[in-house]
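ok trying this again, last paste got cut off
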Amino acid sequence: MKKLYCYTLCIFLMCTAIFQVNASYAFADENITDTDISDETWPSPPDVVAEAGIVMEASTGTVLYDKNMNDVMYPASITKILTTLITLENSSLDEIVNFYHYDVYSLVYGDAHIGMKENEQLNVLDCLYGVMLASANECANAAGEHVARKTTTFTDTINKYKASGEEYDESKTALKIFADIMNNRAKEAGAKNSHFNNPSGLFDEDHYTTCYDMAMITRDAIQNKKFLEIESNTTYRIPNTNLTAETRGVSNRHKMLYPENEFYYEGILGGKTGYVDQSGNTLVTFAKRNGITLICVIMKSNYYNVYNDTRLLLDYGFNNFFMENISENETEFSKSEQILSLDSNDAIMLPNGLDFKNAHLNMTFFNGSKKTGNQIASLDYYYAGRHIGSTNLSLNVSDSASFKSGPGIAVHNQAPEKQKSGNYIFIFIWTFVAILLIILIYKRRKHFNIKKS
């Protein structure tokens, strides 16, 4: 009986503690509306000519500058960033890419190319140098078709056409499948208002994106080491092929990469140019200084101002903001550092002259569907109404079976089953407590009845 008393008391105290923790962070999943931000200011940005632009810090995803960043526009050849990323993620660099009839002859006069021939072959690496440096449209088509032809969707679709007797074009079928792959990958990167219809970016009314979406896609792309390696080159020589005895020299079209050019930018890592009549000049640029990597996207501009706007916005980001490590400055959980931990690499972006305490914390407990490993909550930071960074709060438990915690939180050695809501956990716990109390009362009554008898 004494043991039963103790167990019941312990469970009751644990539930009470959980309830208090949940109440302490009741603001989770809500907008920061109860925080007075009237005195919080954001550095004044420069004036840019482009119709739309964005500057995003790559590691935190913080948007430092925004001009019509969610307006839908035609991207032109900055599309090739997504094409290259998908090709790298789904191919080995030494795989052979074949150039089919449609890849070469679908181009029209004035479209960028490197003179590839039908049935000519390059390996994936050489093909992607043609895509990113020379902006060669036939190389983009061939890369996209190469990826699509390896999918079961392509095989199944072609077999369906053959069985039905329908007329079909293998290249067009492959490129349609690749467009579906592009749209799915863009959503994975965080794109919200994009639809891609071809791997090159040549004009299509159903081929559009936004500055924000391109920044998010680029954010994923620059995490790929081979992508960055390709982008770091200003020139490359494509070797001879099965149909061409001479080598082909290609040069990067992004002028900010060349030290001798008037548009050169110190710290630049790479980028991609774009132009069609309907889009005007578009430009994606990523640069790194003092441990901070910025992504700048400009859309609907002109030849000169697309570079000048990029310089102004990159300078704005590097000169007005700094990065602060979260785990080194967050004091809310310092007393529980042996139980709770934060990712040591995560940071926030703040305007110069501020410090970590100026940021507002918004904590959201994970449900089972969002939880990964021992992560129990997301910590998001805001300043002046802007999201400036985030990290995850993790539970350090050596024997996860011996500890269960929190609303909608359960630590297991294996991945937990999906939980619909943290409220169900409360219901379960309090039901369990009620059952124990019923058992306790029953045991006591039985004891007194025996004693009375």
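PB: full thing came through this time. The mean pLDDT is 86.
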